[in-house]
Amino acid sequence: MINIRQENEMLKAQAKIAKSINWKVVDNWREKLGAEDNMAMLMDYDFGIYYETKQLIRNSPFQSHVRLNFDKMIFSGCLVKEDVVQYNDIDVSDDEDEEEEDVES
Fold first, then answer.
1. Closest by alpha carbon to 29, among 59, 73, 83, 91?
2. Helix, strand, coil % over all residues of the chain, rounded to 5
3. Closest by alpha carbon to 71, among 32, 35, 104, 25?
């Protein structure tokens, strides 16, 4: 069973990842791959269609930023830039500083 602290940590991780997506890379590669929209692009990416058609090269260091952004989109559930707004109210700073202060007092 997931407790509240674990759920908050997961939400913070999703928010941090969603806010770090480079949307320029996503838009440029959606055009290069000929995808209709981000959902179609991520479905084809997730099923490996772009590797089969050789539009993406597996383990290519030159495309690692592309794969990273696609994976971030899948993990966070943000398919368009406007979806990131749902994470605006979440503080993504580390709680380690606050925990250390609690221990000292």
1. 73
2. 70, 0, 30
3. 25
DSSP string, 46-93: HTTHHHHTTSS-TT-GGGHHHHHHHHHHHHHT--SGGGGGGGTTS--S
Please give the model's pTM, rounded to 2 decimal places. Answer: 0.80
Distance CA 57, CA 53 (A): 9
Q: What is the pLDDT of residues 42-66, one digit of tens each?
A: 999 999 999 999 999 999 999 999 9
Q: Is the pLDDT of residue 24 over 50?
A: yes
**CB contact set of 89 (below 8 Å; sequence gap of 6+):** none
